[in-house]
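May I ask for a single protein's sequence together with how it folds?
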Amino acid sequence: MIRLFVIATVLWLAAFSCHGQEKVEYKTYVEVGQTLPMTVFGDIQGLQIVLTDSSNNKLLVLFATWCHDSQRAMKAIMASHLATQTNIDIIGIGREESVESLKNFAAEYQLNFPLVADTDRSIYAQFANAGVPRLILIDGNNTIVKTIIAENEQPLAQVQWH
């Protein structure tokens, strides 16, 4: 009986990934070459982020605090050169996250970039239907350069603006 319970539990856990439901087809609603659909965000500190104010490349990180792949991606970003580059603006967008959960996450992971609480998934829904972390690379003109679903051991392997 215990063996059956353990097997059932393992199968149940395996059915869930970072999108929080059973596997669904991932759809991306933005394309390379398209202008970013949003250029203004309010961060968890109450500040406004206006992407058109900067000619830097940008990295949008769509993530969830509870997701192991998202946690791995955030650790990788902070351990990489991206976290210290002055010509790259990083913005994290917490899918279905509250300001409080993001403040706790930022402190725990020692994030040095702004986070945006997407409590109702309205921001995320403009980019995709499922799957986190998603990395959206944007050039200085706010044109999408690349979209990446970073659910792997090397989440930054494809991050290049060239």
Observations:
- The beta strands are 40-42, 48-50, 57-63, 88-95, 115-118, 134-138, 144-149.
